[in-house]
Amino acid sequence: MKPPAFSYHDPRSVADAVALLASLDNAKLLAGGQSLMPMLNMRYVLPDHVIDLNRVDGLSYIREQDDALEIGAMTRQRDIEFSALVRKRCPLMHEAIAQVGHRQTRNRGTLGGSLCHLDPAAELVTVAAALDAKVTIAGKSGTREIDFAAFPVAYMTPALGPDELLAGAVFPCWSARHGAAFVEFSRRHGDFAIVSAAALLEEDTTGKVTRASLTLGGLGPAPLRATDVERALIGETIGDKRLRELCELLRQRDAIDDIHAPASYRQQLATVLARRALLKAHERIVGSISEVTAQR
Amino acid sequence: MSEERAISLTVNGKRREATVPVRLTLADFLRQKLRLTGTHLGCEHGVCGACTILFDGHSARSCLMLAVQADGHDILTVEGIAPDGKTLHPLQQAFHELHGLQCGFCTPGILTTLIELLRDNPNPTEDDIRVGISGNLCRCTGYHNIVAAALDAAQRLRESHEEPRA
Predict the structure, then answer these.
(1) pLDDT at B36
(2) Can you identify the CATH homologous superfamily of domain B90-160?
(3) Does residue B76 belong to the interface with chain A, where contact is any CB pair within 8 Å?
(4) CB 3.0-4.6 Å disulfide test: which of A41, A169, A232, A290 passes with A2?
């Protein structure tokens, strides 16, 4: 048998799952299993209890509410990938999700599993940071909502108490006229990115940037918002030369240095991928304008 | 002593009931308890794709699921693809004719993955196929003929208007 011995629990409600978390020692939550199951098979984790969330009601949904998308923690990545609502209201997430693993892993993998596993190079983690998402956390005394920016407290460590679980996340949508792009570099298709870049832009009618979001995944222990570049972009007209200068700022950031790539390599990737993502986001705004003009 | 649980599920159209250790993976359940050894185990941590099965019609890695999670669900393994013991499914026929397998280790996972792909996308491009099987490793590196067989199967299925079973 591959996984270590554990007791198995499959609660039907969030309240029951939270009650189990509060009463059991050394328990681990099982969502889509695409990270926890390999870790169990290799015995990297040795929980005494596994609490399976797959039969919990009410954690799988995608809905639009007040210019934001609310997505349940147990929503499969597949459902996000094929959601017309996500494609229309959150094209950044639509583009990113296709780069998450493979068909077989997206069929099982969940939004909540990815956000809680919190791999610094995970696409959905980077998207959540880029969109200023909020996460809803359920615990014994009810639910609380925090900014996703405060969710990673350390490398692969979410801000969850021992008796809390992630119930869902809220992703604010940008205006219908924004441009977004998610680009990543990985050695093999479907791998976690070595570095990824998520960009969102809004521009006025003269082409000047009025709002910008730029996030790097895989660079540091948690996704990194390049607020210096974002601020510098406001009022700028997007062009390759100016972007090269601005994205050069990213080379100064601390970066992970590991078996996959040295820090200098990640810093180089950050400058290149950030520029490509911003250019692509910009072209998509221009594209949407010319499309509207063509229709007239 | 390992905790056990009774489960009831459908495998290749047949109702199955068993009592299993809760930590038993679905892959080991299929292979060891049901003796359906067509589902292969390569890496056992979700990288190679050899253990791919269809779970309620969607491809999944059976090494990354527990048998208890399949309770009440519908599983299709490579043994359930052919319509009967004598006839091959058009996808299998195409693999046979176009040398879509060499050692055969990755084949069950590739066939189950392609059953879903061709059902969802009856008219795939070569690129669709290559992306579709990107989660399946063939260490004979026989991808060229696998892709050719998949494209050929797609055409056969379109011509026969036959729905791939899933």
Answers:
(1) 98
(2) [2Fe-2S]-binding domain (1.10.150.120)
(3) no
(4) A41
